[in-house]
Design a protein that fits this description.
The protein is of the alpha+beta class. It has 16 helices and 16 strands. The chain has an 8-stranded mixed sheet. The protein has a 5-stranded mixed sheet with strand order 13-12-14-15-16, with helices on both faces. A 3-stranded antiparallel sheet has the order 2-4-3.
Amino acid sequence: MSAKKENRIRAPRGTSDYLPDRAASIHRLDRLAGEVFSNYGYQRIITPTFEDTALFTRSIGEASDIVRKEMYTFEDRGGRSLTLRPEATAPVVRAFIEHNLGSQSLPVKLYYFSNMFRYERPQAGRFREFWQLGVEALGSPEPSLDAEVITLAADFLRALDIREGLMKIGSMGDENCRPQYTLILQKYLEEKRDSFCPDCGERLKFNPLRVFDCKNSECQKALADAPKMIDYLCDECRDHFDGVGRLLKEVGIEFSIDPMLVRGFDYYTRTTFEIQSSQLGAQNALGGGGRYDRLVSDYGGKPTPAVGFALGIERLLAALKAEENVDLSTPRKIDVFLIVIDNEHRDQAFKLAIELRRIGLSAEVDYMNRSTRSQMKLADKMGAEYALILGPDEMARGEVVMRNLSTGEERPEKLSSVADKLGKIKGFE
Ligand code: AMP
């Protein structure tokens, strides 16, 4: 590689430029989410890209992989410790408390579409900057709210025509039943300690449930006979779990119960769920979420039970591509291309293009001194519906030629009124 090339600055490892086609797909996902989510009564929220570091260390948990290894934490010039958001639940909860949103009629239902940052080892489906679409519904402990959130996630995938999503549901219990279960699990893990990887050896001391998250196949094997939270739920948690399942069945959501489903954040209580895709290889989770009844009060807010989920946008796009069913990147088509034959008419073409755009049409004009032939080719390539040709003879009479590029039909039009005329044809006044 030449020295010059080596010095070239590239996008940081684990990040990507979303070039226009991909950016357009993301924009369409965002719009579609807006439609589906607003039918369910969710409103958009935008929180800062970075937050006080303590917001995440407290909520996600000191022992979690995210806090231990994956946060982009920096000190600003004022000596504050800040962190680029690795997830959005904690920021939304902070905003909920800070702006007293709990005083509105409950539940408060919010959604976000934001970029997240995690210092992970980049690989297919795993990046250092990625996008998530998620919801948070705050204010009700009812299983119907869990069922609503899960149904919304499933309906959104349905709207995208993603058919290969598998919904898995579990429960993490609550403060009544989880501590007792954790001790039982810890005892089991201690007995089998030698079967686990060194990381799990650490986990079983501080956070035994996290062992279920380990991808190591030996650890997974050793876990096959481990006691499962789902068998140790207290009566309230069991009723809640059954309630969620019953409602999901009533609205036709297919799911399976996964007794090993423990999600990587400390704040979950009761319901957890994950949507996997058979199309995605190792990083097969399209998204997931769960209930977090204690998080708002842990931050000093009024006790407010809540539930939410996040879907990974890059993984949704990968699943769409794998299923080859929806092409979100519509090729750009324009209304009008202005073709200049004589260079002296370039300024008039420029003015006319602006006039057309101001009416509401998409119009393009050549800025590269192309030949007439090349301009024609470009108009075709851009899928222009009309060409306006500024020929010298016509221009001398104050006219241009308007050509319909699909029929080839053409006729002269007055330069002074052609924009209005095209505007009317296209339905703009
Ligand atoms: P989590 O917030 O970890 O529950 O992740 C929710 C979803 O976000 C996952 O199921 C993935 O689809 C996506 N996701 C999480 N981490 C990454 C990452 N590093 N790169 C791309 N997508 C991610």
